[in-house]
TrEMBL record:
CDD domains xref list: BLMA_like
Any one Pfam family match given in the protein's UniProt record, by short name: Glyoxalase
Protein's UniProt keywords contain Glycosyltransferase: no
Domain of life: Bacteria
Native source species: Paractinoplanes aksuensis
InterPro entries registered for this protein in UniProt: Bleomycin-R (IPR000335), Glyas_Bleomycin-R_OHBP_Dase (IPR029068), Glyas_Fos-R_dOase_dom (IPR004360), VOC_core (IPR037523)
The protein's name: Bleomycin resistance protein
Key words, A-Z: Antibiotic resistance
UniProt domain VOC: residue ranges: 6-118
Length: 121
């Protein structure tokens, strides 16, 4: 094989029960959000270089089919304050042994959003 294949990016596809509610929730979290103009209930949310796709799925059961994403950000404490204002109280960020400041948010569809930024030296 003469040419090496380069991966460009990965975009998780997250199941949701109600696409409109999920798009509104991501807007409150500071993402741009829009529904796909097609026959399936599908949406796109973006913030900075991060993209997530949402798919409305009638059989989605957060106890069995939830997703998780890890978001690397520049300031976990700042984003924690922003998201707490948007969705209500969240457990506070904490320093980890692996060198990140992290917090977590589980949305109403059961998706775990783990968020981390590098610890300041």
């Amino acid at each position: 094989m003469s040419d090496e294949i380069t991966f460009k990016r990965a975009v998780p596809i997250i199941p949701v029960r109600d696409l409109d509610a999920a798009l509104a929730r991501y807007r409150r979290l500071g993402f741009t959000a829009e529904a796909w103009d097609g026959p399936q209930r599908y949406g796109f949310v973006d913030r900075g270089d991060v993209s997530l796709h949402l798919t409305e799925w009638d059989e989605h059961d957060p106890a069995r089919t939830a997703a998780s994403v890890y978001l690397y950000v520049s300031d976990a404490d700042g984003l924690h304050a922003e998201w707490t204002e948007a969705v209500g109280p969240l457990d506070p960020p904490r320093d980890t042994p692996w060198g990140l400041r992290e917090f977590a948010y589980v949305d109403p569809d059961g998706t775990l959003h783990r968020v981390g930024s590098p610890l300041k030296s």
